[in-house]
Every structure is written in structure tokens, then in C-alpha cells.
Amino acid sequence: MKAVAAYKYYDAETVEEACAVLNQYAGKAKVLAGGTDLVDWMKRRFMPTPEVLVNIKKIPGLSGITEEGGALKIGATTTLTDIVENSTIQSKYKSLADAAAKGPPPPIRNMGTVAGNLCQYVRCWYYRWPDWYCYRKGGPICFAPGGRNVPHAIMEQKVCNAVVPSDLAVPLAAMNATLTVQGTGGTREVAVKDLYVVLGTVLKPDEIITSVTVPEAPTKQAFLKSRVRAGVDFALVSAAAATTSKGTTVALGGVAPIMVAGTPDAINAAIDKATPLSENRYKVSVAKAMVRRVTA
Amino acid sequence: MGKRFVGDLTQFADKMAKYGYSGLRYMGQRVDDVNGPGIVTGTADWTFNVNLPGMLVGKLKRSPYAHAKIVSIDTSKAEKIPGVVFVGTAKHPMFAGKLIFGDEPVLCDKEVWSNNDPVAIVAAETLEAADDAIDAIDVKYEELPVETDPEAAASPSPSVVQKSPPPNKEGRPNCFYHIPLRYGDFDKEMADSDVTVELASVQPPDPHGTPCTMNAVAVWNGDGSISVWDDVQNIHPVPWPVIAGMVGLPQEKVHFHGPEVCAGGFGGKNAGLAGVYAAMLAIITQRPVRVLYDRTEGLLHVSRPCWKWKVKIGAKKDGTLTALEATTYIGGPYGRFLGGLLERARNGLTGTYRWKAVKYDGYASYTNAQNTLSYRGYSSPETCYTVEMAMDELAKKLGMDPLELRLKNFLNEGERNAMNEIFRSMGSPGVAKKIREFMDAWGPKPSAPDPWVVGRGFASGNKYTQGGMVTNTAHLKFKANGVVEIITDSMDIGTGLNTIWRQFVAEALNIPIENTVKIAVNTDYSPHTSNSFSSMATFHGGYALINAATNAKKILFENAAKILNVKPEELETKDGKIMVKGKPETAIPWSQAFPSIPGQPGPASEMTVSGGIYSPDDYLGPGKMDPATSQCLGPYFRSVLFHSHQAAAYEVMVNKETGELRVTKFAGGCDLIPVNPTNVEGQIEGGMLIMGLGTAISEARYEDKGMYLGKSYLEWKIPTVMDVPKTDYVDTAIVPVWGEAHGDNPRIDAPFGAKGTAEGVQAPSAPAIANAVADAIGVRLTNIPFTPDVILKALGKA
Question: Which of B329, B298, B274 is nearest to B149 (CA)?
């Protein structure tokens, strides 16, 4: 890890202002919220340092947890600690609180935000170090299939085998949560399960997530996460299930570069068709067992 | 809070008396760590806290490849970055040489043999400018074939021949070291065995992971000397002479400062190379320079090597061990320290059990794996690992209790081991029994909720402490106000040394510990006392200090006897006063008994007295070792100073669906007289329970073509507080055994009977965890770490 290279810093006071600056720098700006991932990402210097960081933490109204007409609304800059400690989430959306608690350690939970957790960069070691010019960075190939791939994807691999690292995305996808996204052209809704696409997210360079909405409290829910260490570790495989008026949805984490979410039958069928790499066949049996447990 | 057993120390009162025993006033007492407040408030004298005006930042450009030809290095862009003061390569005469054992370039010129090899160096006004310059140096490489497997590298026809000319030991082109041990009639004993067990294991490279990464500050003084502050765990044997040699100055012109505390060494701070680069940059730039390794360099610059072992052990039906066959392969890009590891592995093989015959071969070869350095235990944990797993498998085959099998075969006090050394200070039986007692007290194995299964495992361990590489001298300065200054050279690297040395002095002189001060380490006045490696400082430093105290008391008593008109042997001392035994009214302060300066009336205002051992080589006794058989020849000759012994027990839970492994209970102990029981318990918890656990279950070391992928603490998974059992389930045992160097010429007592334990605690932990995992899942796993993918593969689920 190196010192962070020079960049311009911009404190946004409104979402509109933040979007305008992001638009002005057209892809050469990054959004700064908790910074727990972004600063590490910049210190490794494996990608060009952004020209400008737009701090959105000072924007009024972007943080907070409220219930509105049976739905749960979480502001983008709400911290993971807020999620863990919120009594509404603890009682009605327990799987979300579990996912936040099983994520980073308390100091990082105090800084890391909900939207930041969803938008963090993948942890793939070929991507995260400058020594490997991989496909995700603009290089010719993904090194994982021919190299070391214990933590990598077992399904939905297209050109990249990194997995979505967000713990929160898994229960949120299972609960059919949506994101409110604002850009210079206005706002739109994006389902959490549709946030991730090959090599990134559907967010445009001028867009930021302003809030997360869980439409209804599940009548039944569960979250499980497996990892090497008992603390401070990303998921090898995680799974969440939530039963709502729309039925039961299962979501898997740690298995694909996108969110894998659907009915239990659809997810089991997807696992049966998994395409594990040389070192991660174990994830297939872990995923199967976890789906069985979260839907039990 | 779990059990805290400390055996009775009063049984050793008579033996301790000759060292100035003052009734266990400080010996064996839980004295608070003298550096505690400084450490928790961040004000301790770390090397990192040395900040000089105008100081530059030095950084190294390192190779991403494990083996490559350097085609070109272009530094022109880096030189133009604002704030950059100097950019250097091996073309600069200062960086053209070789380090330490002569096969490691200061900066690589034509070829790199390891991921992280340095190829260029920068000095800049700020860390930012230095990092910008490192990124701007353009190095063109041509990749060469890579071999990281030490066994494949040792082949007579290896795929890659690393060095030209090849060392070609034993007809193996990459092999530069072969160590054999031959004892007894091996073929006959193995053939006569009723039962045999064979196991092979791989233990990958594992870095030290010190909380404080390597750093050093150097400044060029106006008088042609340099001052260096280096984050090291020894001074006299390695860093000081290496720095002086590398910059071409006599040692007296290198003023070398050791840190007050160094936040973990684990062997990784024995070379102090950051100080070499800092000194070179300071001379070139004529400015103070700090060379600072970042966290990534902290994990990459050195580690323990990859160890591959093949072990076969035999026994008779009644459990009597017969023969041990052991072969090991280790490797690294440079030879430093690897040969010594193979020599010391002999001690691990012969330091616990009685064998009728042993056949051992160790091979060290050049590979493109991570560079190596001494690592906690210096071969003991890695050697005990496979043997202790084999012992459990043997017990299973014989239908014997694993403890019973071990008790039957532990070496006896005074017996000769398979290196023909007289064995002393043998505490294995006592420690093993105590740990087993704790393990049994856990009750029956709890039933875990499906899919978790529970297993328990036990293992013994041993560790040698070397006798050489010390001069063993300490000075005590007695001041008129009753304060005694301890002038020595060793650093407290987290071992509590700064505290226990004060305990030794206060006990030997019978003074309040507050009246002792350990003086900052500086080669300008520090003698070579000991080193903070090989778990030797308690023994060597303690011995020198107690000897100095004894010498001082002799002088004081002789002078006081004249004043008090009695014989010296009628006197005693307490709290800085000398008095006739049992007559406190006769007391005079020490200062009245200080020797006078010739020609001056009255005593001098202070007194400095030295102590030590005449020659450290006497530890080994007369004789020599036969290099062909590793047998100690001569009546008393021995290869080590003393042995220490340990035992560990773990309860683990394994999730048969996810492969997750969690440690739920622990008991661990060692055989020694503790200077400070809290300190020893800290070693058992930190070194045995946690550091050993990390190597066994989580610290996987992934590399691709020799390029290490786990370069942060998220990827190299050192255990967190969440990974250890609750304190209610952490039991420790300190089983006192009188410490003495084995051999009888002369037999050397440890100071107050105390021997060191810092490294040995790690020896039994990985095998005990492996035995617990085997108990839990019914499959024997031997390649660490036991990560979920490894466990599920063993269960047929991957």
C-alpha cells in the first residue's frame, strides 16, 4: 500500500451538486462516503487515481432509517453500525442486521455506509494488485481460471470471475429491495438484484444511490455467511432467504460477479448448472447446503 | 477466566539462594510490564517515533515477478518528480554489493529471483513523492521459468537451474545445503518395528506479520560517522556489522540505537535491512532518511520458507518407539538462514522422544519462493508438526492412549538423545500430564448442532536454545542514590524483557524494582549481552546480570566489612543498605562502600561492575560434531544450550457443510521456572494459542507463478479476537523445571533456574489442531492451513 496520490476534493452540499460535479468529470470522479473501500483502493494504486473525490457525507437527509407505509427506507450514507443497532431492523429485518454485523469489524462499520457497501469494488486479488493487468482493469484476460481461484465465482462468469463482495446486497436482494438512484437527468429505481452487471454496476458516471427501500417486512427470513476467519472477512459463500407477499426469494453472495437471486427452485437449478473453477468446486456444495438451511 | 496453573517455586529456594535469592521478592512474581503505559499510550520509544528535522523518506522499487531477467531500468521520469532527491539502482557503487551471506544483491541488476526483490531505491521529501517516484520508475523484465516447490527444486534434474554456477550439492544443481543425521542401526530397527506410520506434510511460507513494520532512520554526522535507529531484535551479531560493512565504515563510526520496544519480531527483524538502505541513502544525500516498509512489504520481505516433510516412525507392540526416518525440503531465493534451519531441525527430531535409530536428511535449495528469515522457533514448530501427527496415528494403530504412548517414550533427565547429547531440564512428562488433566476437565465432548462436529487433539513440542552468537556481558551502574542502571544491548520485542531483567537485578540485589532502570540500547556504550532471538535473552542476559550483581556485592561487602569491622560473609544487603546479618541498626548505604578513586579520599560517587560468562563456547563443552552423522563427539559436547518443552490441547468445531473451522477450547503449557508468570502466560496465549492457530487454520499463502496474491491483512488472514476461544476456555500451565544447559562440563544453571520460552510455545499448536481436526472429521489432513476448501475436499465435497 502506498500513499494516496494527489486528487481534488469536493464537498457536495446537495445531491444535485454532487451529480453535477460527477457529470463534469465524466468518469474521472469518484463518490466518497465512508471511504473504507475507496481509500484502500486508491492506496494500492492499481488503477489511475481519480481526478476528484466528491464527498456526499455532508449532504443533509442522505442518512437515516425510516418506515413509510409498511416499507423500510434507508438513506445512502447510513452507516453499517446504524443498521446493526436499529431496533426496527433488528426486529423486522433481522437478516439485514445479521449481514451488517457479520461484515466488517466495528471501526469500519462506524464509517462504512449502506450505499458504499453495495458499490464497493471486487476483492479479486488479480484486480486489487497492480502486478496483474486483468480484464477488469482493461487487460486481455481474467487470470483466475488459469491461476488461483479459491474465492472466485462458480456461476455467471462471463469475462471476469470476481464475486460481488457486498454482504448487504444478499439479504436486500432476497427482500426485493430497490435503490433510488439520482443523476443529472433525474431519479430512477433499480432493483438491488439488478444493480450488478459484468465489470461493474448499472450506475452511470453522474449517478449516485440516494436511498434503499425494502417494500415490505418479510414474514420469514434468514442470512448465512461462511468465511475463513470468524471476524473481518468477506464471504466465501453467503445466502439469504425472505418470504413476503410475493413469495420466497433466495439470494446468493460470493458465487458470481452479479447478484444471483430468484425462487428457491430457480437458485437450486442454477447451482446445479454451476461452472466452478479449478480450486472452488467446494462452493457448489456450500451453496446447496446454505440454500437448504436458509429456506428450512 | 480459565485455569492458570503455576507450579510451586519455593521447592527451588535452596538452588536459587546462590544467586542472591531474596525470598522470591521479584522472581516468579507478576510484576507489571514496565513498558505497558508507554505502549498503550503510543509514547514508547519505537523506532517509528524517531523523527529528525529535514528527514527524507526512502522507498524501494520491488520486482513483481518471482524470476525474471532485468532488461532495462529507466529512472528518468522518477528523477523529475518534485520532491525527489535521489533515485538509485545497482549501477550506483553504493548499491552494487551483496547482502549478508554474499548471494543476495543490495539491488538486483541483471536478474530477480523472488517476488519483492528490490531493483531501485528512492529518497524524497515526502512519502507521496517517494511513492510517485517508485511508480514512475520503468523496469522492463523478461520473465524466466519459476519454481517455488522446494522438493522439485532439489531434484537432480530440476526444471529450473537458478544460479550460475549451480551449487550442485549431492548432485542436485539447486541444492546448496544437505544435512544428514545417522543414529543407531536404522534398517534393523525399522525392520524390527511391529507398527509403522508414514506421513507427508506441506507447510507453506508464512510471514511474521509484525504489528510494527520494518523501519529505520539514519543520519550522516559531521564527524564522518553515522547514527542509525533500526527496528531490530538483535544488534551485535547481524545489523550493526552488516550496516558498517555495507557502507564501508568501521563499526565504531556507526552509532547504532536499538528500540525500547519493537512490537513483535518473531525472527523477522533479525537482519535489520531497512537500516542498511537508510544508512546508504543518508550517506548519499547527506540528509536524515527514514526507510519504511509498508504493510505489503511487511508481509512480503521475508517469511518462513515452505517446508515439505516425509516422516516414517516405527514402534514395538507395547508402544516403545524404534526408528524415525525424516526427510525435509526447504527453499528460498537466497541462502541466508536456510542451512541453519536444517541443522536445527535435528534438535526438533531428537528433543522429545527416545529413538533407537534415526535417519534424517534435510535439503535446502534455491527456489523462487518468498525470501526467508528466521521465524519463531527456527524449525522447531515445523519439525515437531509432522512427528506429532504421526505419534497420534501410531497411538491409533496401537490402540494406545496418545498421552500414554508419549509418556512411555519421553527422554529421561540425564539420558543421551539421538544426537548423543546429555539431556537436561526435561519437563515434557509434567507438562503433558498437566495439559491432559485440563483437557479431561473439559468433560465429555459437547454435542454440536448439525452440521458442526467437535474434535479434540493434543500434541507435545520441543525447542532448543542456541549457545553461540553472544558475548554475554552486562554492566550494572550503582548510583549514590541507590538506583542501579542496567546497561545491556537487548531489545524488548514484546517478550517483557525490559521487565524481567529488572526483576532479575532487583531479586539478586534485594532492592525495590523501582530502583532499577534499563538504559536505552546504543552501541556507543552497550556491551554484547544477548540477542532477542532463539529465546535466549532470559538465560544469557539474566546470567550476565546476576553475575554482575554477585560481583558487585562482593566489592561492596569487602569495603563495608572494613567500615563495620566484621568479615564480609557476616554481612547482608537490603534496599540499598549493607548491614551485619540480623542487625539492621548497623546499616550503612551502599554509597559508603563504593570503591574510592586512587589518591582521592572517600568513596567515588558511583560504581560500575560487569558480569558475564568467561566464554560462551564453554556452553558446548569440549568436542565436536561429526558432520556425516550429526553425532556429538566428546564426553559432554552438545549442539544446543538447553531445551524447553511444551504441550497443547485444542477443541475445535468443524462445519461439515461449509468447511469452516473454529477453535472452542484451548489448554497449553511449558516447562520452566517463570521469572514473571503473567509474561509466560502471555507467550502461551499469543504464541501457542493464536500464532500457532493462524498458521494451522487461516494464514493461507496463495501464489501464482511465485507472485504472492495475499499482500494485505484481509488476504493473509491472521486470526482476529473473534477466532480464539472465550477466556473461560483458555487454560495455561507453567510446570517448573530447573533450567540448566545439558552436558556436564560444567553443567550450567539458568539464572534462578529460569529458561526462555518465547518461540517454543508455537511448536505443539499446529499438530494439536491437526489432531483435533482428524478427531472431528475422521480424516487426517496434513497440509496446512486447513481452510474451508481443504476441509471440504477431504470430506469429498469439492
Answer: B329
Q: Please provide the CATH number assigned to the domain covering B47-62+68-144+208-300.
A: 3.90.1170.50
**Domain B1-9+423-461+644-798 is in which class?**
alpha beta
Number of domains in chain A: 1
Does the reported pTM lie above 0.95?
A: yes
Mean pLDDT of chain A: 97
Please answer yes or no on whether B127 and A3 come within 8 Å at the CB atom. yes
Residue A46's closest chain B neighbor by CA?
B135
In terms of CA atoms, which chain B residue is nearest residue A238? B658
Query: Distance between CA atoms of B570 and B582, rounded to whole angstroms?
Result: 10
In this predicted model, what pLDDT tens digit does every residue of B250-290 receive, in sequence order?
999 999 999 988 888 999 999 999 999 999 999 999 999 99
* CB contact at 8 A, B110 and B119: no
On whether the CB atoms of residues B702 and B294 are closer than 8 A, the answer is no
Mean pLDDT throughout A250-255?
A: 98
Confirm or reject contact between B64 and chain A (CB < 8 A): yes
Residue A239 lies in a domain: yes
Show residues of chain A in contact with B711, CB under 8 Å: 125, 129
Position A50 in a domain:
no
Domain of residue A246: give its range: 61-294
Q: What is the CATH number of the domain that holds A66?
A: 3.30.465.10
* Chain A nearest C-alpha distance from B230 (Å): 21
Interface test with A, best of B143, B704, B722, B786 (most A CBs within 10 A): B704
Interchain pair A129, B709: CB under 8 A: yes
Asked whether residue A55 is assigned to any structural domain, the reply reads: no
Tell me whether residues B720 and A229 touch, CB distance under 8 A: yes
pLDDT of residue B745: 62
Q: Do B128 and A129 touch (CB under 8 A)?
A: no
B662–A281: do the CB atoms touch at under 8 Å? no
Instruction: Give me the DSSP letters along B170-181.
Output: TTBTTEEEEEEE
Mean pLDDT calculated for residue range A191-215: 97
B798/A285 Cβ within 8 A: yes
- How confident is the model at residue B619, as a pLDDT? 58
Q: Is the peptide bond before B165 cis (omega within 30 degrees of 0)?
A: yes
| Structural domain spans, chain B | 1-9+423-461+644-798, 47-62+68-144+208-300, 149-206+302-409, 468-619
Cβ neighbours of residue B672 closer than 8 Å, sequence gap 6 or more: B427, B644, B680, B734, B735, B736, B737, B739, B754, B755, B756, B757
pLDDT above 90 as % of chain A:
96
Partners of A234 on chain B (C-beta within 8 Å) are 714
For A194, which DSSP code? G
> What is B97-142 written as a DSSP string?
SEETTTTEESS-SSEE-STT-EEEEEEESSHHHHHHHHHH-EEEEE
Average pLDDT value for residue range A113-127: 97
Q: Which residues of chain B have a CB within 8 Å of the CB of A150?
A: 700, 702, 787, 789
A·B CB contacts under 8 A: 106
Task: State whether CATH 3.30.365.10 applies to domain B149-206+302-409.
Answer: yes
A28 interfaces chain B, CB cutoff of 8 Å: no
What does the alpha-carbon distance between residue B524 and residue B129 come to, in Å, rounded to a whole number? 35
Q: Give residues with Cβ within 8 angstroms of B51, minimum separation 6.
A: none
Over residues A63-77, the pLDDT tens digits come to: 999 999 999 999 999
Fold classified for B468-619: Aldehyde Oxidoreductase; domain 4 (3.30.365)
Do the domain assignments include residue A257?
Answer: yes
Phi and psi for B83 in degrees, rounded to 5? 95, -10
Minimal Cα–Cα distance from B40 to chain A, Å? 18
Query: What's the confidence (pLDDT) of residue B621?
Result: 67
